[in-house]
Every structure is written in structure tokens, then in C-alpha cells.
Amino acid sequence: MKVMIIGCGRVGSFLANRLDEVGHQVAILDRNQQAFRRLSEKFSGERIVGNGLVEEFVRPTLQEKTDMFFAMTDKDNVNLMIAQKVKQSFHVEKVIAVVHDSILAGLYKELGVETVCPTDLVIKDLLEKIQEG
Amino acid sequence: MKVMIIGCGRVGSFLANRLDEVGHQVAILDRNQQAFRRLSEKFSGERIVGNGLVEEFVRPTLQEKTDMFFAMTDKDNVNLMIAQKVKQSFHVEKVIAVVHDSILAGLYKELGVETVCPTDLVIKDLLEKIQEG
């Protein structure tokens, strides 16, 4: 599968390493070259330094059929803007954005942008831990 | 149950509102008074403005038996320092810290500090979403 990831933070880099390791074709973009230090030495995918909101940085990858796109920066609004733009402008099967704000995440889910909300996941986990205790 | 929460961010405030709503005795601390705007109007617990690392701010609550303590600031090191100190100095049944760094979270789990790692939870959720797709 062909995969693009925006943001080489903890989550983005883990995903890039993992998907590359199991044989997918991965391109990862970050504004900061230093962020790529999180990638494994074995990482064989493409590293792109640039702004995910600027089309010239994502078009070369996305103009060919891409299976999965992940907006994984630490900024909710950036992730949602990128995800929406990619859904509108390119043919990508699966577009997922990380959104920390539960309400925003819920709203965009209704609008058809798949979201992962760390806040909701942490709260669910904590409530389970409290029940156990 | 008696509960203390450090950090009135998204997770801390949700937890405070929820536990207060179902009848627990909640004290929540934040360095920033403004953070308490996240609490529900119905919140009947205690709001403490102060630094969770400074004992005088947590002692008045913790010197009486406390059932659960949550270190929920956005800083891993602060959460771990507070959690360890509370475990050492007070009698609290359950101490849980949010730790974004997967490796740190794993290490401290081995040392007996219960941790919740948003990074691990997001990655797990993403990998499930990829399998589904």
C-alpha cells in the first residue's frame, strides 16, 4: 500500500517505521528536518521537509493513487484542514486526522473525516482503570 | 471516594466533572486559575491554585486518606515526579500519571507507578483502524 503521513512526532514516526517495516510504500512529511531523527535507521521510505498545508509538498505524492493518509501533527486545526483538503483534492481511500478536542473530533467524524481523539482514548482508559481499582 | 487531580486540562477537567457528578469528593489543582473554566458550573469540588510539585499545595488534601490521585498535567516529567512523591509521602490507594513517552511510561509501570500513555493508545487505535480499512 501507498501511505502518506504528515508530522513525524511520536505517533507519526512510529506509524512510519511500522508501515515501512511491513513493506508499505511510506512518505512522511515534517516542517522540521530534525523530526526525522525519530525514524528508524532501517526506514526506507521518503522524507519530505515542508508544510503539509501547502499543496506543492503533498501533490507529488498524492497525485498517484494513495491508499492511506494520516494527519498527525500536534495541532488539531492543521490536521483537520489538511485532512479536508486531501479528501477534496485527491483520491485517497482512507484519511485519518488526530484531533485532541473531543467536540471537534466528534463534529468532523459526522462530516466524514475519520478522527482519532487522544483525549477520548485516555479518558476511556482512565475510567476502565478506576472501575478495576 | 476522595480524589485529587493535578492539572485541569481536557482530561483532568473531564475526570473532575465526571467524578464529582457521580458523588465523589474531588479536589483539583492547577497552576492557572483560568484552567478552571473547563469545570462544569455544577462542579461542587475544591479548586486549588498552585504547583503540584510543592508539598504545601497537596498536603492539606492528601494528609487525610485519599483513594485516588491523578497526575494529569501536559508534562510527563512533572506527572512522574508528582506521582512518585505522592506514593512515597502519603497513603493513597491508586496513583495514576499520564505519560506521553511510551518508553518512560513502560519504565515507570515497571517501577510501580500506574501510567496511561496517550501515544500508545493512539497508535493502538490507528492500527485497528488500518486493519479494518
Task: Provide an overview of this structure.
- The structure is a homodimer of 133-residue chains.
- Chain A is an alpha/beta fold and 133 residues long.
- A six-stranded parallel β-sheet of chain A has the order 3-2-1-4-5-6, with helices on both faces.
- In chain A, helix 3 links the parallel strand 4 and strand 5.
- The N and C termini of chain A lie far apart (42 Å).
- Chains A and B meet through helix 1, strand 5 and helix 5 of A and helix 1, strand 5 and helix 5 of B.
Mean pLDDT across the residues of chain A is: 94
Which strand order does the major sheet of chain A show? 3-2-1-4-5-6
Strand content of chain A: 15-25%
What's the assembly state of these chains? homodimer
Q: How is the biggest beta sheet of chain A arranged?
A: 6 strands, parallel
Largest interface: chains, residues each: A-B, 27 and 27 residues
- SSE order of chain A in H/E notation? EHEEHEHEHEH
Helix and strand content put the structural class of chain A at alpha/beta
Q: How much helical structure, as a percent, in the residues of chain A? A: 40-55%
Spans of chain A with pLDDT under 50 lasting ≥5 residues? none
Alpha-carbon distance between the two ends of chain A: 42 Å
- Please work out how many helical segments of chain A DSSP would assign: 5
Q: Could you tell me the number of beta strands of chain A?
A: 6
